Prior knowledge:
The chain is mainly α. Helix content is 54%, strand content 8%.
Amino acid sequence: MTSRTDIPSPRSTDPDPVAGDRVYVARRERSWGRRLRWGRRAVQASMVGLIGWQVIRSFLGEESSAEGLCPFGGFETLWTLVTTGQYVRHSHPASLVLALGVIALAVFARGFFCGWLCPFGAVQEWLHASARAVADRIPPLRRLRHRLAQAGSRPLWRRVDRVLRLGRWAVLVWAVGGAAVTGTMVFRDADPWNALISVAEFELSLAFAVLLATFLLALVVDRPFCRYACPLGAVQSIAAKASPVAVQRDASACLGCDLCNEACPMAIPVNTRTRVTDSACNGCLECVAACPSRDALGVTFALPGLTRR
Length: 309
């Protein structure tokens, strides 16, 4: 259900605005956003549980390695498979099937895999949410978090952030190109996902160091690996260019509250977009769940290139 509420326009400076200075906006019930968030978290928890069960069975020798459930292995082995008919070592036919599934999802649902199904993204998200919840209850940490948030909004950090986001494209070229040239998964030695599913073996390695760095960064930055280094996210963003699905913003119904920006785990300035087609968008719909206006944000279908950003 929704309710119709009159709300002062964010552009109005009159402390006692008249009817003409007010915007009439259909409001969503807060429970709607909570249901959407908890629905996504339930899906994420199911995927983490599935992978965790596979890891346990693999450790007990009852199942093959859970590494075969990583879609990126399909992209790494594709060139070798096409040219030689052989799979790159440590890859699996299941990885190729999952890779094709990720591409299909990207075309039909944009970033759905990253935002709803990726277990490594979910773990980073939960770490960040837990750290934020703890910090908000400890005054010194709360003040520190606010200072970091203010620093993150400054032009210098935004420029640094844009440069760092190129990292996932560099990792993609290195991982796919290296696998094609050498016939081995060069990215595997630095892949934090591989370290996470092998954590019971506790092997000190570059991958474990990257995993540890990711978890530490996740305490202050939401989804750091997804933002700056994930090659699978880079592949998905290419396919998503053809997707007709995206979050659409109606500026006439926007309250200017910036709650959508605060909710976005990928730090996309949603309130400046007409249609959120940014390559970083992971389709989590946190911006939609946070928006108090019923009509300001929603998921719509449109042919790519026919709507303004």
